[in-house]
Design brief:
single chain, alpha/beta, 5-stranded parallel β-sheet, 5 strands, about 40% helix
């Protein structure tokens, strides 16, 4: 992992949403070590509840979650005036063309495959700052 610059001053804040606690925690630790403020939740409902209190600069979400999928979470975030422009980043196992089209239609800005190298994700986060 070499793309390791910004945050620090005024640290960039991320909500990570993944129903798999291990996956969410692992990504959260990686990003904390890279200098980000991270809040990890395991459901879309918890992510929506955390928006105003945590005030993230971006949200990283899984697409395949029970009860509220990442696609539904993205649609709900886009309907909230205060958060309609929040950068949404899918980190998911769903990467077929139709998955990417559905993610884009739901308002997801970036789409990465889980377990892929972290460099592209870190470069994307740096570009958002």
């Amino acid at each position: 992992m070499t793309a390791r610059s910004p945050p620090l001053a005024g640290r960039f804040r991320l909500i990570i949403v993944d129903d798999n606690a291990d996956a969410g925690s692992s990504l959260g630790m990686l990003l904390q070590l890279s200098g980000y403020d991270v809040f990890v939740v395991q459901s879309g409902r918890d992510a929506l509840d955390a928006l105003d209190d945590f005030a993230p600069d971006a949200m990283i979400l899984d697409l395949a979650m029970p009860r509220m999928s990442g696609l539904e979470l993205a649609r709900r975030v886009r309907r909230l005036p205060a958060w309609a422009e929040l950068p949404l980043i899918a980190v998911t196992g769903q990467s077929m063309d139709e998955d990417r089209r559905a993610a884009k239609a739901a308002g997801i800005d970036f789409h990465f495959l889980k377990a892929a190298p972290s460099e592209p994700l870190l470069r994307t986060l740096i570009s958002l700052q």
